[in-house]
Amino acid sequence: MTASQPAPTRPPGHGESTMTAAVQDRYGETGDVLHLAQVARPTPGPDEVLLRVHAAGVDRGVWHLMAGVPYAVRLTGLRAPRNPVRGREVAGRVEAVGSGVSTLRVGDEVLGIGNGTFAEFATARAAKLVARPAALPVEQAAVIGVSATTALQAVRDHGRVQAGQTVLVLGASGGVGSFAVQIAKAYGAEVTGVSSTGKLDLVRSLGADHVVDYTQGDVTAAGRRYDVVVDIGGSRSVRTLRRLLTPTGTLVFVGGEGGGRLLGVGRQLRGVLLSPFVRQHLRMFVASENAADLAELTDLITAGTVTPVVDRAFPLAEAGAAVQYMTDGRARGKVVVTV
């Protein structure tokens, strides 16, 4: 399937009330916990639409729900997630419209955030979707919902990046990081991206002014300080990260990695609790899912200022392998599942 083609129709014999989906019936930290199954096709509720999924992005939250780590996520189900279908980022076509939806129509091509998008069909709130630009391939459209929105809010709202500032992106070659580098450049910052040796070329291609290979030594060794540090899925201590900041600089924690297996945000909470007592600003956040930010991102993409980086596309039958590829740290940018 090419990027511009719609997803194929379902195989003959599948009932109209069912669909194929990648599901899990237990928690597990490796991709083999996901398997294909026939499940009930969802029905859109008020303010929701039903989507025919073309492609679904793989974000870190998919792994957290799949693995049940940190353990706090198991509040949605002790032995398995309440919704067995993984995936949230999506590009697809509107198949049905629930009550109260006036902004979308059947047949509209959209992108954004849905529920259980590793499937032939998924529901989504209309307020978390925007029109997909005709020139934007579905694989690229599918990776914007969570990762690009998170990067935008980290840079714009919490880092408050301004033209002329220096910005350090830790984890610059991943899903959120590849967007953060480009968005910080779009805001006029001088950007340094940190990644492994094999991904330095990617970070340079994103527009980073400087690159740092973390495998060749501690990023703090150079002694340089930054106005804003965006720490994506890292494990460096708060003390180490503060040494990377100017005296009044801003540290933005993105994601729950490095924060322990119980709550997932222990390191981040320590930073936030310390923040009122120091001149530096130490922040963590939960991304807001909204159409306004999706629209801003599609404008940046249409203008050529930001380009979604897709490393590999996996078929739905290999959704588990797609998640594993991401968690193994092999992905350069984003990974998608095509349906």
TrEMBL record:
<dbReference type="Pfam" id="PF08240">
    <property type="entry name" value="ADH_N"/>
</dbReference>
<dbReference type="InterPro" id="IPR020843">
    <property type="entry name" value="ER"/>
</dbReference>
<feature type="region of interest" description="Disordered">
    <location>
        <begin position="1"/>
        <end position="20"/>
    </location>
</feature>
<dbReference type="InterPro" id="IPR036291">
    <property type="entry name" value="NAD(P)-bd_dom_sf"/>
</dbReference>
<feature type="domain" description="Enoyl reductase (ER)">
    <location>
        <begin position="31"/>
        <end position="337"/>
    </location>
</feature>
<dbReference type="InterPro" id="IPR011032">
    <property type="entry name" value="GroES-like_sf"/>
</dbReference>
<protein>
    <submittedName>
        <fullName>NAD(P)-dependent alcohol dehydrogenase</fullName>
    </submittedName>
</protein>
<dbReference type="Pfam" id="PF13602">
    <property type="entry name" value="ADH_zinc_N_2"/>
</dbReference>
<dbReference type="InterPro" id="IPR002364">
    <property type="entry name" value="Quin_OxRdtase/zeta-crystal_CS"/>
</dbReference>
<dbReference type="InterPro" id="IPR052733">
    <property type="entry name" value="Chloroplast_QOR"/>
</dbReference>
<dbReference type="InterPro" id="IPR013154">
    <property type="entry name" value="ADH-like_N"/>
</dbReference>
